[in-house]
Amino acid sequence: MSCILSIETSTDICSVAVSQNGVCIYEKVDRSGPNHAVVLGTFVDQALSFLDGHLIPLDAVAVSSGPGSYTGLRIGTSMAKGISYGRSVKLLSVPTLQLMCVPILLQEQITDDKALLCPMLDAKRMEVYAQIFDRGLNEIRPILADVVDAETYLPYLEEHPVYFFGNGADKCKDIIQHPNAHFINGVVPLAKNMFPLAEKRMMNEQFEDVAYFVPFYLKDFVAKQAKKLI
After folding, report:
1. Rounded CA gap, 141 and 59, in Å?
2. Apex CA 100: angle with CA 23 and CA 16, to 5°?
3. Which of 5, 57, 102, 120 could join 169 in a cystine, given CB atoms 3.0 to 4.6 angstroms apart?
4. What ranges in 30-153 are assigned the alpha helix state H?
5. CA distances in angstroms from 144 to 12, 33, 102, listed in the order given
6. CB 110 within 8 A of CB 127
7. Could you tell me which of 89, 172, 160 has the C-alpha nearest to residue 123?
8. Does residue 222 sit in helix, strand or coil?
9. 52-81 pLDDT, tens per residue?
10. How many of the other CB atoms lie within 10 Å of CB of 214?
11. Which residues contact 86 (CB under 8 A, 6 or more apart)?
12. How far is 221 from 149, CA to CA, in rounded Å?
């Protein structure tokens, strides 16, 4: 086992956590809005000071790899790369939608072996980023930017109970009315939930190249024209 510092910035929530031997020993979370550029540096500095003060060697840094907020993913990735290079530790990436499934599986909120998990992130407008897994976190359907209607997940709902969660699921509750559709509230991507997935990648030596790693944005960035103030 190892010591891993994890960074999650794919949504408006910014979180940093440290695990040792798979147990969370440090966590900082900011839920006040998209303040990553303001708070992330302080959170990371405090986490590293905590490790240094307790003489705990850092083995790797893990970062949420997306999809999600373009700006948030860039900030988190840049910080993770800086730590990896500066501290000479391994860089790990954890898919955002996959890590959203971790608290549900750990808390055993779903007991039906045939159930499917569909984490969703709000992709603005009428879209959501969504992916479908079984309870073993095997991918059943890849990540897509879905414009959701009553038919979008029907092939899965006809065969399985499907659990939808994440801030993208909130805007789909009135659209997906199938009896096999279930919604779990309050699930957000947090750094502390990366640990099982990051530890697995560490054991399998699934490291990222610090120079060439980029987040998974899914969609191309579209710049908006600034509003006139006068």
Report:
1. 33
2. 50
3. 120
4. 36-53, 70-87, 96-106
5. 21, 25, 20
6. no
7. 172
8. coil
9. 999 999 999 999 999 999 999 999 999 999
10. 12
11. none
12. 24
Which sign does the torsion angle of CA 136, 141, 143, 146 carry? negative
AA letter at 160: H
Which one-letter amino acid corresponds to residue 1?
Answer: M
- Cα 49 to Cα 44, 52, 148: the distances in Å are 8, 5, 45
Residue with tokens 């006809």: 158
Q: Confirm whether pTM is higher than 0.85.
A: yes
Cis peptide before 67, with omega less than 30 degrees from 0?
A: yes
% pLDDT > 90, the chain:
87
> H-type helices in 54-203, by residue range?
70-87, 96-106, 154-157, 195-203
